[in-house]
Amino acid sequence: MANGNEKELAGRAAAQLVRDGDIVGLGTGSTAYFAVVAIGERVKAGLKIVGIPTSVATAELARKLGIPLSTLDEHQSIDITIDGADEIDAHLNLIKGGGGALLREKIIASASKKMAVVADSSKVVKALGKFPLPVEIIPFAQAVLAKKIASLGASCTLRMKADGNPFVTDEGHHILDCSFGKIADPPKLARVLSEMPGVVEHGLFIGIAKLAIVGKGSSTSEIRPKTSLRKRSTTQHSRSTKRSRSRAKRKSKRS
Asked: What is the pTM assigned to this prediction?
């Protein structure tokens, strides 16, 4: 129950980021659900927006709430996308795809000026990988890809539905849930997976999210991408150099 409260707090807080006139990417999943509901309430109160859903399920929810919908054919640039995540690290790298909508989610997120992630406190981790990484694949290549990904150190399982048939995404693909354990280098793994023929998309979202709103207890907190040590050092060196040049100029003028 605590996680449910945290999810609702995060979703409702993120919904307040939406401004009148925005094109809004509407996420999929148990936490994004609360953001969509809160946006629907704001629309009912007079907020003027257009939503672009990341899944068939979210589209159905948005219609019930009276949120006007459109498509990427009509709007190639999205002001803000609010979506959930299965894991979030300190650099705002994500694992997504537990709900099976990772392909559309990544397309819409990549077309957005800003992606805000909503989650409960259990989703914040020191290192990605405890949650199995979803990899969306073409069914034809399933056996080959399962073997290739396993060679990287993962245990791969084809996602199944309750009726015993393979889960099929909105785009007609299958999903391999790949357990890597701790992922030491998420950007590298993302590149390797993307280069495999037959992989449609994977659930590593690297450098896409700009903000995470996390519910914890009875409040929320924000996570923003950490500035790398190298970047901070470069900036500090630049400032130090400018100060040194300025002092040298003043000395030159006095002499």
From this structure: 0.86
Give the residue numbers annotated as catalytic, written as ranges: 105
CATH of range 2-223; options 2.60.120.560, 3.40.120.10, 3.40.50.1360, 3.40.50.12780: 3.40.50.1360
What single string gives the DSSP state of each residue in the chain?
A: -HHHHHHHHHHHHHHTT--TT-EEEE--STTHHHHHHHHHHHHHTT---EEEESSHHHHHHHHHHT--B--TTT-S-BSEEEEE-SEE-TT--EE--TTS-HHHHHHHHHTBS-EEEEEEGGGB-SSTTSSPEEEEE-GGGHHHHHHHHHTTT-EEEE-B-TTSSBP--TTS-EEEEEE-SS-S-HHHHHHHHHTSTTEEEESEE-S--SEEEEEETTEEEEE-PPPPHHHHHHHHHHHHHHHHHHHHHHHHHH-
Render pLDDT for 155-197 as a digit per residue (tens, 0 to 9).
999 999 999 999 999 999 999 999 999 999 999 999 999 999 9
Which pLDDT tens digit goes with each residue over 189-216? 999 999 999 999 999 999 999 999 999 9
